From TrEMBL:
This is Glycosyltransferase family 4 protein. InterPro entries: Glyco_trans_1. CDD domains: GT4_PimA-like. It holds the Pfam family Glycos_transf_1. Residues 189-336 form the Glycosyl transferase family domain. It comes from the Bacteria. The keyword Transferase applies. Signal peptide: none annotated. Gene3D superfamilies: Glycogen Phosphorylase B (3.40.50.2000). Keywords: Transferase.
Length: 377
């Protein structure tokens, strides 16, 4: 079996969860003996492949062009959507902020006539969503199999496509040899830790507001691609509670997870957030948004918050901070259930199902972390 994994070029220079997920899965697939090549486009392929595995539908134009190229080559198409429908949520979140930064004329219109500016923006934004989702739906319908990160994400894909799409839910994971409890003393000097890209989607501004309520220090690991957003976040840190760390090495990151009582991702959505899995594996308690698939991963282990409510985030942080730490039960749960080697086995089960002509019955597919999801193939 020859597999080509097609990922869009990351021009931003920031490491995102989808790239980490696929790079780790690729390494584990190769350990399982799968012949995997990686490319930015099916046009780059020099030899015939059996499966083109397309990564991500957020970039809808990339996904559509690659699924059409793969079909033209006669390859089976497997799709990792890495997607959650949150465009409507983003309309609630700074409806003009992005265009103000990129196109000064919007800022001028907002000052002259804010009502017209908002109405115009929302009309154009909804048109863009509609067109992008039409392309995404076509990609999902053309794929032979989708590999969402949870059954909840699969339901999002089904609604998008307007039909039931065959899928295997492939867990996100961690490197269990790296992320583990190394601090057994219980002395954790980072009360709250955020790890990730510092942007509006990650909701860092409300997280900073919530720790002002709690009067509790917050350490932020990660960089902001938009300096104006980080400047805005700095202005919200009225009590000087935030310590910015920038990028860290893997070893430094493990150390910070082991120093943290709580790891938080109060984002607009998470599917489910690699930092949460890594932090939990290192014994930290977790706080996560109630939008996305995190509940399918953590169940009763996590504290959940409404990302649009500073009070809700603060209350979830307070509850998580009161739990014993290190949380050995959560660490073992994550390290046993969510690893990249297991994710690769789930992925390989999907490949084999596609190559067998989709003729096998549902119970022959290894669903893995989501056993209750076996009805979908």
């Amino acid at each position: 079996m020859r597999v080509a994994i097609l990922m869009p070029t990351n021009h931003e220079g920031h490491v995102r969860g989808g790239h980490v997920q696929m790079n780790q899965t690729i390494a584990s697939l190769r350990d399982l003996g799968v012949d995997v090549t990686v490319a930015n486009s099916a046009e780059q392929l020099e030899e015939r492949v059996d499966i083109c595995h397309i990564v991500g539908i957020q970039d809808d134009q990339f996904a559509l062009s690659e699924v059409l190229r793969a079909k033209h080559l006669g390859a089976k198409v497997v799709l990792s959507p890495i997607w959650w429908d949150f465009d409507k949520l983003m309309l609630q979140e700074g409806w003009l902020s992005t265009l103000e930064r990129r196109q000064p004329r919007w800022s001028t219109l907002a000052r002259i006539n804010p009502t017209m500016a908002r109405a115009t923006f929302m009309l154009l934004y909804r048109m863009r969503i509609y067109q992008a989702n039409r392309r995404r739906a076509l990609v999902c319908r053309k794929a032979d199999l989708t590999l969402p990160n949870s059954p909840g994400e699969a339901e999002q894909i089904n609604r998008l496509a307007g039909k039931n799409i065959p899928y295997v839910a492939v867990r996100n994971g961690i490197d269990e040899s790296l992320f583990r409890i190394t601090n057994l003393t219980g002395q954790r000097d980072i009360p709250i830790l955020f790890v990730g890209l510092v942007d509006r989607t990650k909701n860092v501004h409300r997280l900073i507001q919530s720790v002002q309520q709690l009067d509790t220090p917050l350490v932020i690991v990660g960089q902001a691609p938009d300096r104006s957003y980080q400047t805005y976040c700095n202005a919200l840190d009225e009590k000087g509670l935030v310590e910015w760390k920038g990028k860290l090495t893997h070893q430094e990151l493990v150390s910070h997870y082991n120093r943290a009582r709580v790891v938080v991702l109060s984002s607009m959505r998470e599917t489910p957030g690699l930092a949460l899995l890594e932090g939990a594996a290192c014994g930290a308690n977790v706080v996560v948004t109630n939008i996305g698939s995190a509940m399918e991963y953590f169940g009763d282990f996590a504290e959940y918050c409404n990302p649009f409510s500073v009070d809700s985030i603060a209350q979830a942080l307070r509850r998580a901070s009161s739990k014993p730490c290190p949380n050995h039960e959560l660490s073992e749960y994550v390290r046993n259930k969510y690893t990249w080697s297991l994710a690769a086995r789930d992925t390989l089960a999907g490949y084999e199902w596609v190559m067998e002509g989709r003729s096998t019955v549902v119970n022959s597919i290894r669903i893995g972390a989501f056993q209750h999801d076996a009805r979908h193939i």
